[in-house]
Amino acid sequence: MASQLAERFSTVPIMLYHTYLGPDEGRHRASQHVREQSNLYLETSWCRWREVARFLGEVGPDRVLFGSDDAVDGPHHYCRRPPNVEG
Question: Which residues, listed in sequence order, are joined to residue 40 by a DSSP beta bridge?
């Protein structure tokens, strides 16, 4: 688990890539872990804009890293129906 790894290596910054890809509960848990451990960061690829806004309010802008899978998925990443990025 990332929180255990972050606790064990407390001086190493650890990014939670995709801020968990499972159910919403996992993203809430990830946000909670970031609030508890100063070396954890949330990354936003595959997160909807409302989730990103919630993360900013919960953990602050210094703990949220903008991410995109555009480099892997290409420009059509933003043109899906429904779009991957909204708002």
Answer: 14
